[in-house]
Design brief:
Chain lengths: ~160, ~425
Amino acid sequence: MTVQEDYQPVFSGKVLDELQTVFQRYPNKQAALLPTLWIAQREHGWISDRIMAEVAEVLGLTPAYVKGVVTFYTMYHQHPVGKNFVQVCTTSPCNICGAEAVMKALLEQTGAGDAGATSPDGKWTIVEVECLGACGFATPVLVNDDFLENVTPEKVPDIVRKYR
Amino acid sequence: MGFPHKSHPKETVVLSQYFGDAEARTQKGWVKRGGYEALSQALKMEPAAVTDVVKESGLRGRGGAGFPTGLKWSFMPKEKKKPHYLCVNADESEPGTFKDREIMRWTPHALLEGTAIAAHAIRAEVAYIYIRGEFTEPWTIMERALAEANAAGVFGNIKVYLHRGAGAYICGEETALMNSIEGKRGNPRIKPPFPAAAGLFGLPTTINNVETLVAVPHILKRGAAWYKGLCLSNPKSTGTKLFSVCGHVQRPGNYEVTMGFPLKDLLYDMCGGPPTGRTLKACIPGGSSVPILTREETEACLLDYEGVVEKGSMLGSGGVIVFDDSADMVYQIMRLARFYAHESCAQCTQCREGTAWTTKIMERILAGQGKTKDLDLLLDLSENMTGKTICVLSDSCAAPIVSGIKKFRGEFEAYLAGKRQPVMVG
């Protein structure tokens, strides 16, 4: 799938200055790869091939190496996602507390339809994730950087209204 | 129990004393509560003397393996020729476990203090706290606390940095975590060499869990003898432990009890037992990687490293997952296998293939298309997944499968015999 991408280099000006402070935390530039990718994703919304090439250049790595790392971790988006990226935990402890019903309600009420797909209005991408590490607060849902606890299908309409 | 509940009278509140107390999150608030006194005390001591106190206390690693902490610290080279590192494992991802998250949310300075003491003890100049990527709130709180602590200059010459993960359960494995900090894929390394010889950046490294480190300031302040005295059963397990209870209980949450506490009291008295009208069917006492216990085993189990082994499981990380009689064990074990299949780093064949294959077999059984030989096949695969790989992720997938078939065979057979309605589409 070819994605239309409005590409602007990420690492210039203030962002480049921020990167310099990241470098100070590690003995070499390679170790700064994960934080650098986080910055790139914050700025660009997702990690495209062009972003990977740029990251590779600023860190003195190869684009292939960067891609190898990006594809290992689930939180780096390898394609554009909706304005709200929603992660629903459906592993066993949350599963027995009704996580699948929360997932279903979110997919229906946001118009995203299928897990991983983006809603036609571009506002929602809902994914099932494995353990979010908040099993006693089932079901935890991560909407962008907001960590919501004890979500039930009844609470879904409010969540949809709030983030829409 | 910690926020939002009040602690239960049967709890031994040490680590969780300030859970829910927002003021304790600040540098000033922490100092007011006696925080950073243990660090000042430690910095005046010889590193080896700090290690000796921790050794004497009997503290064991709270991340899952239960390795004696002081002994681990003492493995670091006696003669310092190269830089030393400390890694703090805050990549809490074991299904059922959510204690480190609470520690970081409510007592970030306790973790920073424990980290600095450990770094001093192993003579590390740099400590990295590896926080899983999904923990957005704990990250923000830790970041603020670290800035305050740095501004107050509490760490002396020790530098503490946060490092954010990016969604990979396997990075909770110690060497995978080090690879991840180095900017690599989170593949576990073959051991030996062990981290104390060649760890982060190939240099001597110690790695400790969050809960282990927050116990250290208390041990220094109140003494090893006090900590050792916190023991209800086997003297090899000392101190208090946070148990994260989740699933089918009325009051899920983190409960801090003295080692050797009865699991039955934790589940019924403190957590209120299963929902009204339901009965307990099974329990996983130490996070999803350990064997499942039946109701009888659960009710007779004592919560310390030896007590849980005696009942056929492991204390692990202290993530207690409770299933009542409404739970479909076949479906839940499939979900656990799917978790491991998703999280396998795919280095070792037994794990990469085994976790995916066992998941597929269980999905087939749940779709009503299981074959009579499937249970034997699952057990055979599980045997080949145990003890044969670089790390224990593969073993962790096999543990609930083997114990599940052994203890809940009837539920599997009901699907195979067509006596249970398929719950999945084949």
